[in-house]
């Protein structure tokens, strides 16, 4: 596996995690350095994404192999992707993202016949809400699961995520 550079070189994101029965797509901004190195969504050990899904679904995704996690995600009707396909960035902070190239969110929506909503994971992702709203689906802004979002407790994040997942029968 290659290690992405944390220089000003253009970084490439990850492919979407989707299935024909995807009803809700969670959109991050762009994978962290840890995620790019592992080629896995939300790979940073302090990111709350997998612990939140574990709590919502009563399944210990954190201890599962990544491929098995993705199987559970797809079976439950959840999709995972990012708003940016590529960018330049040093480190992992969203504030360091430059020259971002967006992913084809409209194209993704067209490929998913059961898609009901997009949920933006954090503020940088939410900057693309005008694009997702234009697709005619429900759109939510969720609190970031990033360890950089320390102002929200795990319990507060979990409650916000639970509300959105409940609206789309993902619980």
TrEMBL record:
Transmembrane segments: none
InterPro entries: Hypoxan-DNA_Glyclase, Uracil-DNA_glycosylase-like, Uracil-DNA_glycosylase-like_sf
Signal peptide: none
Domain of life: Bacteria
NCBIfam families, sorted: hypoxanDNAglyco
Annotated protein name in UniProt: DNA-deoxyinosine glycosylase
């Amino acid at each position: 596996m290659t290690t992405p550079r944390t220089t000003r070189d253009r970084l490439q994101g990850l492919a979407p995690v989707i299935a024909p029965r995807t009803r809700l797509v969670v959109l991050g901004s762009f994978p962290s350095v840890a995620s790019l190195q592992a080629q896995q969504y939300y790979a940073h050990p302090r990111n709350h994404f997998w612990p939140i899904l574990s709590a919502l679904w009563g399944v210990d995704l954190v201890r599962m192999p990544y491929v098995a996690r993705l199987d559970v995600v797809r079976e439950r009707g959840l999709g995972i992707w990012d708003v940016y396909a590529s960018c330049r960035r040093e480190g992992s902070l969203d504030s360091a993202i430059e020259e971002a190239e967006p992913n084809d969110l409209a194209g993704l929506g067209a490929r998913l016949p059961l898609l009901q909503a997009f949920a933006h994971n954090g503020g940088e992702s939410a900057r693309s809400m005008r694009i997702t709203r234009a697709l005619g689906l429900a759109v939510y802004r969720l609190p970031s699961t990033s360890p950089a979002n320390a102002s929200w407790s795990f319990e507060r994040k979990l409650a916000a995520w639970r509300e959105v997942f409940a609206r789309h029968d993902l619980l």
